[in-house]
Amino acid sequence: MYKSILSLGLLLSLSITCTAQQDSSRYTFKEGSYDGIGKWYLGREIAHVMGYQGMSWLERDSREKEENTSRLIKNMDIQPEDVIADIGAGSGYHVFKMAPIASKGKIYAVDIQEEMLAAIRKKNEEKGIDNIELVKGSEKSVNLAAHSVDKVLMVDVYHEFNFPYEMIQSIKSALKPNGEIFLIEYRAEDKSVPIKPLHKMSETQAVKEMQAAGFKLKENISNLPWQHCMVFVIE
């Protein structure tokens, strides 16, 4: 029994060591910019997460004009039976636009901040939409069942993931075989887009990171004012 306990302890220690080595080889750490966390992934510094205190910015009156969210929703070609996960759903800005279209499906509103989920819950109590489900995610997982979603939407959130590789692997598991990721990020290639550099991404960088997780770019729909609308599928 004593030897068995020692063996189990050794295995656990080796497992923890291997995980730590994988994290240290996948990510690098150094002093970074004011808007970053000092952690790099494939040459990109990860940005600070926008806290729930910035919720009013997500609901700003100028958002439709600046981002043309109506066109984004059309780009997604949402079908009535679609099951869609909005990762980093925030205050639910896109959730409430998608839910009526996917009327026979479901919208998972996933966020790591309870305050954001509470805001969606409160708003939905007023609207009474019955195909919205709140999901508390973590830094490494979207906490969705395997092969459960047709489409994943990430709007200006991926660049803030503390563990981007692990999160995309979690999303990969949640996607159905022909599922799609709609990765929406402010265009780093366009200096006129009035967003801090660390909160933008280039298509080249996005493709590099998504390829590392087993995805390929299906298309980049270039009809939004400030953002890339990149569609990724499993390779």
From TrEMBL:
It holds the Pfam family Methyltransf_31. Keywords: Methyltransferase, Signal, Transferase. Residues 1-20 form the signal peptide. Residues 82-216 form the Methyltransferase domain. GO terms for biological process: methylation. One of its GO terms (molecular function) is methyltransferase activity. It comes from the Bacteria. SUPFAM superfamilies: S-adenosyl-L-methionine-dependent methyltransferases. This is Class I SAM-dependent methyltransferase. It comes from Marivirga atlantica.
